[in-house]
Amino acid sequence: MPDPLQLSSHYAVVSAMITPAFFLTATASLLVSSNNRLARVVDRMRQQLATLEDTVDEHARQYLEARIILHRRRVRLILTCLQLLYGAMTAFVGTSLAIGIDQFADYRLRGVPTGLAMCGVLLVLAACINMGREARMSVSMLDAEVKREFDRDHGRGKRG
User: Fold this and answer.
1) Most exposed among 21, 28, 38, 54, judged by the fewest C-beta atoms under 10 Å?
2) Nearest CA to 47 among 31, 61, 30, 68?
3) What is the C-alpha separation between 79 and 25, in angstroms, rounded?
4) Distance of alpha carbon 158 from the chain centroid
C-alpha cells in the first residue's frame, strides 16, 4: 500500500503545477486581444497606404503620411506587447515544469519556480503598460481625426 504522506505530496506538487495555468489563461486572453488590435491597426494602415497612393493634394498626403507613421509606432508597441506576452507564457510554462522537476530533485531548485512565476508576472505587467500606451495613442489619433473633420465641416459651413 502506498504511503499516504508521499501520495499527498505528489498531489500537492501536481496542484502547484496547475496553478500557473491561471496565469497562462489570462496571458492567452491578452495575446488574443493584442493580436486583434495588431490586425486592426495593420488593416487601417494598409487602407491609408492605398489612399495615399491615389492622393495628389500635398496637404492630404502629409496628413496621411503622418498617420501612417503613427500607425507604424502603434504596430511596434503591439509587437513588443506580443513578445512580452509570449515571454510570460514561456515563464509560466517554465514555472509549472520547474515545480515538477523540483519535487524530483528533492527541492534543490529552491527559488527557481517562484522566480519564473515572478518573471512571468513582470512580463505581463510590462505588456499591459505597453498596451495602455498603444490605446492612448489610438484615442489621440481618433481625437485628432474627429477634430480635423469638425474643423473641416465648420470651415465649409462658414463658406456656404
Assistant:
1) 54
2) 68
3) 20
4) 45
Q: What is the pLDDT of residues 19-56, one digit of tens each?
A: 888 999 999 999 999 999 999 999 999 999 999 999 99
Closest CA to 65 of 47, 52, 53: 52
Q: Tens digits of per-residue pLDDT, 56-101?
A: 999 999 999 999 999 999 999 999 999 999 999 999 999 999 988 9
Domain ranges of the chain: 4-157
Taking CA atoms, 55 is separated from 1, 18, 129, 160, in Å, by: 81, 56, 36, 25
pTM over 0.70: yes
User: CA torsion sign, 105 to 111 to 114 to 117?
Assistant: negative
Measured N-to-C along each axis, helices 58-104 and 4-18 cross at an angle, to the nearest 10 degrees, of 170
